[in-house]
Design brief:
The structure is a homodimer of 676-residue chains. Chain A is built from 19 helices and no strands. With 676 residues, chain A is mainly α. Chain A has one domain. In chain A, helix 2 runs parallel beside helix 17, helix 5 runs antiparallel to helix 6 and helix 14 runs antiparallel to helix 15.
Chain lengths: 676, 676
């Protein structure tokens, strides 16, 4: 049976990659519109690629260093180093190919809206599917290959050796999500401050040297960043479940090890089928079209997974654990949508509070963000308990843990299509922007905006999903860490009356606060460099203000990339060093405490910041729709302050939590031998 | 030996109370100044008493209900109910007497500044000593009495039965600190919004019906609230250490049980002696005078405690554990001062960020608040580990826990004098306000302001102390909870891989976010009621605007008291109900997790909010000193927004964390029999 699962994983992942390539070439064949549009789109596309090239060059140097450290520092270091490099390459490839298509699709979506909104939906969604399929396809292909090769070569193989691959995924996610998060806001601030405020030229004006950097930023954060983040969760939850399967069971062990890969493969198949359900048949309800695809994929996935589990391990409790994760993920996603939507109570209450000034706007926004942690935390708690007991945890503790790990796999099983709907969001957003900039006519713009509005909802749900999966993955990594130690004969009991464990929890809880503080000030620091460069170009390039000369977009992108990556170093180093230092100096118990503390507090802070930021943004939009005095009113000015605060919350510090909590978890696992 | 300690405790606590009464009558004998001053002061005094009367009336009703529940619901319910009522009465008495003198001292301090700043310092500080001595004297007297009576009456006595007394202290603190916290900001907002904004009359104008409520609020929050908060920490840390002594040792058990009372008594003696070191000999350095008193008390306390511990239990490790707590407390206090002082880097960075608007002011303030969690968390971590191992935890686990508990007692041992310096702050602040309102002349005002400036520093340190002690107390209560269960034969292991414990930690971490959200919006809701009342009075009382008729101050106070207490109900109920619900439905393991989660996250949030709020406040003051454009500049306007957000942070939600985390801990302990 295990050979069939492995074979199936290879086949399905290759199908996913081929499907992505096919859809990608199809997207590129669509008409890219008029000259002006193509010019804008080309600049964004080239800018995005310039960003990635610059980023990859810097990453490469560090990657080699890390690989060498892994090789020398831990047992089976060669395998871990190979896995690490392989993980880096696959994740970087998925990000690069996904971004490539996304930045081709935006202009084509905009042009398609000239004739048919259904066609626009199709192009934008297809580009999302490209991203989704590359991510899941390459992830499963990578894990399956390493597992196959390592287990064929070594008789004493343990899935523990695969964690280097997860570390690689984390490494890329750190750059894409944390570095990208700083980049996107720094470019935004830099472009606005010199362009709008100092020079008085409108937003998105091509004379502004930072305008392309700004547009690139949106893709960097929401396409590449989100993709790398979810790829990391996807890979690490599968790896953790495989390892717990290895440690927890003696009967059917091989089957339990490979089951996560099997579920993931079924999820990919279901996602591919689901994509065919997305058609804008009813043009008045675009959300329903996308939902139909996700729903179809979920149902297919559930049915096939049930059959798989029944046949492979015969334990249907495991099946229900899988579904538990899926339901928890949806609950978190919907809660995110509710708390950040412009037309629900929370954001409206912030709009209303703006009437009495910026102070009350901020207070209300912070309160909304804090409140919004309720449903996600309860969802995760119910999910953990349900998965544990459904998988038989009351009689077999380790089987229960396997259930929790599998629920994380279940949450992300249909990632192929859910990531497609997430990625759809920024593509549609860009399309609306391009149709505005290229002045495509009222009808077309309205259609593009309708697509964008749907995208806002799916993007919000996607954000919630990313946070929820990060929390669950981080938790599962921690449980795996403890079980690995126990399997090595370390009788570790993480009793919270043990002062070391307590101190670990305190230190773990502290870290997200420090990260958030660092990242919020990082945006300002990186922005200053762009501001100086934009000022320099306006000063030295003759004819720029008059539109006679072109600004040097690439230089702005390089400078802001370097600035963002520099600001990323300290938080990144802390995330890598903290678990190692605590583990080496205070011992494995304190490290265990740290992993719990950072997961709990990191999750709370991620939800709080992402939702407060989203709600501030939409509270401003609600006022701009004409409520409470509309644009230009005092309430609007107050809401702009909230939006300014919300930007680094939702696009930099908040999403960075996802990465940092997972990164610490995987570092602890990879360096386990050091803590014994 | 144990009889001597108990006898000593009785003696020392009675001396403290007599000393407080003596100083109180001495303060009242000072000249209360001219008629105008007396009028203002009388109104504040009467208002404060009206607030307390109103509050106590409502508290009384609930107190009876809780006492009845205790009586019927748990074993030894009669004793717990008696302890509860006794705790309520003693804490309320300390608060009432302390407030009484504080509101008499402010005007006398102002008047004394006419002739001699040293005299002003003496009066304000003496009134602080009154508060300090009532708190420590009544606390020790109460614990010693109950212990004496219960142990004389019952052969199977356990210090566990004393926790009703701690619950009483928590109950009063809930009203004083959480209710008071909402009250003070609601009155502030209400007075400002109608008075300054709508009617255009200056701040502190006696025509404003809410002006007295506003002034009362300062005393309510910083005098009564702070006192009740620290009394709660003081009582509960002593009780927890007594109980752990009872559970941990077989040899010298009685001595270990009474040692915390002994240390507290020595601390009181040392504090009394320390007060004689406070004299403004060098009038240019008032801070040094206050520090001299605290320093002298600390040294005396250390020497005597060393002798006590050496003679009573012979384990000098316990002595070092005591000192550990003291040092951790000082570190947290100094860090609070650094992060909130107008003349240190953090607040200045916020002032600077105000130049680019309210948005950057808020971002920088939030970042400063998050950063400021670093030192307090590290201090607590180092403190826990040091106390545990110094007390012999590596060979005797329970002895180590006793060390941690004793370190909490040590942190608060000199509370008699540290609370005096804290309380000095608001008294000096009020004195400066009165000298301004009564137009006492430049020289006098300058002297009063010099006293006030010193008070700001001591108040900041006091805030840090309150947070640190709350965290440590809450932690010790949790450890005690687990040990009590174990002593009852429940083999509880709070392993954090157990999903129930994990879920408990998540839920515990969630609660501080929910409390903070509730409390931040509570201020706005309570303020509306005051606003309506103030508007009504301006409308219906003829001649009010012209200064010919007097407003109804008391009615404003009643309405805002009722409003604040109403808003307090939900957070208070959640704090009481959450541990009970989790304990009953998810079991003791989940409850244990909850207690850890809420302590860690509550501590982080308390520090974050208190320091961000303090820093915003002083960033505004720094600009008002003439920096970055001074008063009225754009930077100043931005800084005002930060201050508005900071107010509920530092005066409502932040301090409320202290109470809520302790309250949950004591509830878990009192209702232990329900979770078995």
């Amino acid at each position: 049976m295990q050979n069939q699962i492995l074979l199936g994983s290879f086949l399905v992942s290759i199908i996913a990659i081929l499907y992505a390539l096919y859809l990608g070439s199809k997207v590129k064949k669509y008409d890219a519109g008029n000259e002006k549009m193509q010019e804008i789109s080309d600049a964004i596309h080239k800018g995005a690629m310039a960003f990635l090239n610059r980023e990859y060059k810097i990453m490469l140097a560090f990657m080699v260093v890390v690989a060498i450290i892994l090789y020398f520092a831990i047992p089976h270091g060669l395998l871990q180093a190979i896995g690490f490099v392989f993980g880096c390459i696959l994740s970087a490839t998925a990000g690069r190919l996904g971004m490539h298509i996304a930045t081709k699709a935006n202009v084509r979506t905009a042009w398609a809206c000239n004739s048919d909104i259904g066609k626009g939906l199709k192009i934008a969604f297809s580009s999302g599917v490209v991203m989704g399929m590359f991510v899941v396809g390459l992830a499963v292909l990578g894990i399956a290959s390493l597992h196959y090769v390592f287990s064929a070569l070594y008789a004493d193989y343990s899935p523990e050796w695969l964690f280097g691959f997860g570390f690689g995924a984390s490494y890329i996610a750190l750059f894409a999500r944390v570095g990208g998060g700083i980049y996107t806001k720094a470019a935004d601030v830099g472009a606005d401050l010199v362009g709008k405020v100092e020079k008085g030229i409108p937003e998105d004006d091509p004379r502004n040297p930072a305008v392309i950097a700004d547009n690139v930023g949106d893709n960097v954060g929401d396409v590449a960043g989100m993709g790398a983040d979810l790829l990391e969760s996807y890979v690490e939850s599968i790896l953790a479940a495989m390892l717990i399967g290895f440690l927890a069971f003696s009967a059917n062990r091989e089957e339990y090890i490979l089951l996560p890969l099997g579920i993931a493969s079924i999820g990919i198949l279901a996602s591919i089928i689901g994509t065919f359900f997305v058609r804008a048949g009813n043009k008045n309800n675009l959300t329903a079209s996308l939902n139909m695809g996700v729903l179809a994929a979920s149902i297919i996935m559930a049915v096939l997974t049930f059959l798989l589990i029944k046949n492979v391990v015969g334990n249907t409790g495991i099946f229900w654990a899988t579904i538990t994760g899926l339901v928890a993920g949806i609950a978190i996603g919907l809660s995110t949508e509710y708390y950040t939507s412009a037309h629900q109570k929370p954001a409206k209450s912030i709009s209303e509070a703006s009437k009495t000034g910026a102070g009350t706007n901020i207070i209300e926004g912070l309160a909304v963000g804090m409140w919004s942690t309720l449903i996600p935390v309860v969802a995760v708690c119910v999910g953990i308990l349900a998965a544990f007991y459904l998988a038989g945890g009351s009689t077999d503790f380790k089987a229960g843990l396997y259930g929790v790990a599998i629920s994380a796999v279940g949450m992300l099983s249909t990632l192929g299509i859910t990531l497609a709907t997430d990625t759809y969001g920024p593509v549609a957003d860009n399309a609306a922007g391009i149709s505005e900039m290229a002045k495509l006519g009222k009808k077309t713009r309205e259609r593009a905006e309708a697509l964008d509005a749907v995208g806002n909802t799916t993007a919000a749900i996607g954000k919630g999903f990313a946070i929820g999966s990060a929390a669950l993955t981080s938790l599962v990594l921690y449980v795996t860490f403890v079980e690995v130690l126990r399997a090595k004969g370390i009788d570790i009991i993480l009793d919270v009356t043990n002062p070391k464990v307590l101190v670990g929890i305190f230190l773990g809880g502290l870290l997200p606060f420090i990260f958030a503080a660092l990242l919020m000030t990082a945006v300002g620091k990186a922005a200053i460099k762009i501001i100086n460069e934009v000022r320099r170009q306006f000063k030295t390039i003759k004819g720029l203000m008059e539109g006679k000369a072109k600004p040097d977009y690439e230089r702005c992108i390089h400078i802001s990339t370097d600035g963002a990556l520099k600001e990323m170093i300290i938080p990144g180093l802390i995330a890598v060093a903290a678990p190692i230092i605590v583990g080496v100096f205070l011992g494995a118990e304190a490290l265990g405490g740290l992993l719990v503390g950072k997961t709990v507090v990191g999750f709370l802070m991620a939800v709080f910041m992402a939702n407060a930021g989203g709600a501030w943004d939409n509270a401003k939009k609600y006022i701009e729709e004409g409520n409470f005095g509309g644009k230009g009113s005092d309430a609007h000015k107050a809401a702009v302050v909230g939006d300014t605060v919300g930007d680094p919350f939702k696009d930099t510090a908040g999403p960075a939590m996802n990465i940092l909590i997972k990164l610490m978890g995987i570092v602890a696992l990879v360096f386990v031998p050091w803590f014994i």
